[in-house]
Amino acid sequence: MCFQFDEAIRITLQICDALAYCHEHGVFHRDIKPENIMILEDGSIKIIDFGVALLEGARRVTWRGLSGTVGTPDYMAPEQLRGERGMVGSDIYAVGVILYEMLCGHTPFEGENIFAVMNQHVSQDPPSILQCNPSLSPALATVVMRAIRRDPQKRYKSMRDMMHDLRHLDDVVPTDYSPDVPKAGGRYRRAILLTLIIIAICLLIIAFGVLAQFAHSAIR
Known about the structure:
Blueprint: H1 5-24, E1 27-28, E2 37-39, E3 45-47, E4 54-55, H2 78-81, H3 88-104, H4 114-123, H5 129-132, H6 138-147, H7 159-167, H8 186-219
Antiparallel strand pairs: 1-4, 2-3
Helix pairs in contact: 1-3, 1-7, 3-6, 4-8
């Protein structure tokens, strides 16, 4: 289901404003997705689930620390999937994907499984939003595609910058979207596979620990 343009922009502006406040206080959400955005009866939004949020300069002392890949693949920035720390650009990417989905009815990348989606995120730029919704204004399309570039340096530098353009679309100079040449995905596929293996091993260790504790209790 697609949102009306005005409604999609209104929701996105609120998300940007909330995240801008977090970023300005050194907190990065790193798992922005529709399930973590609540629309209240008065139309305002609340962002929930800061379970994988990162405080600038801090480190996690949990099993998650074995992998930098935390978040939800459909909305995760390429650098997160490569195991890098999610920062401002990663949240901007996720918000851009949500805006893309609200305007098109689906996320930029779709695949048969999580691995296929992750590989697309790290190896190529998303398809132009105008391919799925030609009725969008070139200015709005420019904002969306700038937010979800694979290269973080080509995205907005801050949530405030993205908010400014969404509020002043008449001042946005439309640019032709030119995706970067897809990268050979071998190295990134190996990195993703290694991350998934590490997560699986951690889960197995936890499971064996629980079973061992249960068996020990049963013997006693």
